[in-house]
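#lab-general

N.A. 3:47 PM
ok so I finally got the sequence cleaned up, no stray characters, all 173 residues accounted for. can someone with queue access submit it? mine expired

B.Y. 3:52 PM
send it over

N.A. 3:53 PM
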Amino acid sequence: MGLPSTDDLKWYRNEFRPHFDDWVFGPVERLVISEPLIAFIFMACVIDYLAGFWWGKSTKNYVHDAYVGFIDEYFPKGRYNPEDLYNSLRNGLVHMFTIKDMKYALTHDHPELNLLVTSSGHTLLNAMDFKNDLVAAKLKYFDEVEADDVLMGKLKDRYNRDGFMLPIKLTLV
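B.Y. 4:20 PM
back already:
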């Protein structure tokens, strides 16, 4: 493990990271306040997105490993079950618009309920608390990318292979 090159750090700090924060975490910040259900769906997708950069190589046939691995590595230890988040939120909420296996109950504006378990066995997820843990995971990962040429290489491989949403100029013909 070595440090990333000066050119990689310059690109990462001046282009990738600000663009990521603007295009990915800007909407998270707005949605968690105005549309908490959509925020949960979007945050589950953001975990998938971050996991892809962390994984580096194609996640085809490895989505589970990347998603669960990222949560295990970067989310606060002991707060979440990575398998449950993968199955209930990513596969359930994102792909079937339901909370698969009914592991979670979603709430907002109730931080006092976050991660409590109901009598029916549902773990309560408060939107703002989940967002804060996602932001902390992103910051931890991004800080590690700046200090590790292997993680930087994986991020750049993913970026170069799959791209990143960018605005384009439309010219009508």
